[in-house]
Amino acid sequence: MQRLGRLWLLWRRPPAAGVAAKNLGVREVASGVSPPGSTSPRALNIFDRDLKRKQKNWAARQPEPMKFDYLKEAVGSQIADRVYDITRNFSLALDVGCGRGYIAQHLNKETVGKFFQVDIAENALKNTLEMEIPTVSVLADEEFLPFKENTFDLVVSSLSLHWVNDLPRALEQDTDEIQVNYPGMFELMEDLQGMGESNCAWNRKALLHRDTMLAAAAVYREMYRNEDGSVPATYQIYYMIGWKYHDSQARPAERGSATVSFGELGKINNLMSQGKKSQ
Q1: How far apart are CA 98 and CA 131, in angstroms?
Q2: DSSP the chain
Q3: Contacts of 140 (CB under 8 A, 6+ apart)
Q4: pTM summary value
Q5: Which of 19, 115, 141, 219 makes a 20 to 30 Å CA pair with 124?
Q6: How many angstroms separate the Cα of 39 from the Cα of each of 9, 113, 127, 179?
Q7: Which residues, other chains included, contact 226 with Cβ-Cβ below 8 Å and sequence gap of 6+?
């Protein structure tokens, strides 16, 4: 993946708030913060990128792709909220692995002037959601971006980088967890296929025997069943937003320019209290 110029990275601990479920039946969605996990090793050429393109194209061709969009909608909205937290506007932004435009639909022209949306699946780009800001759709693999260095002011990505073979270790920070409760394991697998999120690892098994699937479903239900009979699946979400420095943003003071020591800061409350008493 090409470097996109000097980026300022924003890592935010997401709020432990609930996320509304849409078209889920008994698929109930909840959100929370996971504890820090172990580091993930860098790996190369694990995933079949051509298969991932076919999976995402198949999912985008379905008559009701929005039936499986609940997770990507929720994450896209939360990423847009984090963009709004940055007190500046961006003239040119990039969404790496945009899908149907789950982030762009939540942004406005006052925040982003022009939005480039890149995805490996042409059918996803043909079926993008309605949005306010001007967009440019680019068909490209996330591993080989066709842009020059230092092109964009803002770079975002949502639920796409987990299929990239060479992923930087920077994604080892604290994650968001979204739990969805399914009627059973087969409904979970159906939704993953509908999202275009089926396994594409080179070492995947081409076919699992029906008896194996039934046994796995029974074990899964026995081990993880909720009180209402549903079974949970937990999605770990990594958030990263990169943006380029702008003169409108405040710069940190130069080292050694402080006029008050940390020791004196502790006396501020006492000085303020004395001032109020003398008034």
Answers
A1: 13
A2: ----SS-EEE------------S-TT-EEEEEEPPP--------S-B-HHHHHHHHHHHHHSS-GGGG-HHHHHHHHHHHHHHHTSSS-EEEEEEET-TTTTTGGG--TTTEEEEEEEES-HHHHHTPPP-SS-EEEEE--TTS----TT--SEEEE-S-GGG-SS--GGGGS--EEEEEEESSHHHHHHHHHHHT----BTT--S---HHHHHHHHHHHHHHH--TTS-EEEEEEE---EEE---TTSPPPPPTT--SS-HHHHTTHHHHHHHHHHH-
A3: 118, 119, 120, 146
A4: 0.57
A5: 19
A6: 19, 36, 36, 22
A7: 181, 232
Is the CB of residue 124 less than 8 Å from the CB of residue 100? yes
Model confidence pLDDT, tens digit, residues 182-200? 999 999 999 999 988 888 8
pLDDT by position in tens, the chain (length 279): 333 332 333 333 333 333 333 334 444 444 333 343 333 444 578 889 999 999 999 999 999 888 899 999 999 999 999 999 888 889 999 999 999 999 999 999 999 999 999 999 999 999 999 899 999 999 998 888 888 888 898 999 988 888 888 765 435 447 578 889 999 999 999 999 998 888 888 888 878 888 888 898 898 888 888 989 899 998 877 776 777 777 776 666 677 676 766 666 666 666 666 665 565
Task: Report the distance separating Cα 29 and Cα 58, nearest Å.
Answer: 25
